[in-house]
Amino acid sequence: MQVFLSVCILLLSILAYDLMGRAFCIKCRYSPVLPERICIGFFLYFAAFQIVALIMIFTRQKLHVLGAVWLVLLLLLSAASAAIAAGHKKRERVQRKCAPTVISVRPSGAARALFLLMTAAVICECLTGLLMQRNIGWDFAYYIGNMTTSVATDTMYVYDGSSGLMRSRLELRYALSSFYMNTAWISQITGISALVLQKYVTGVLCILLTNAVVYSFAMEVFQRDKKKSAVLVTITIILTIFWDVYDTTAQFLLLRNYEAKAYCANVVLPMICYLLYRIWKNSEDHRNWMELFLVAFASVAVSMSSVVLVPAMIGLMLLAHLIIERRWDGVLVLRGICCMMPNVCYLVVYFASTRGWLIVEV
Question: Which of 6, 25, 91, 232 is the most exposed place for a label (fewest CB within 10 A)?
Answer without folding.
Answer: 91
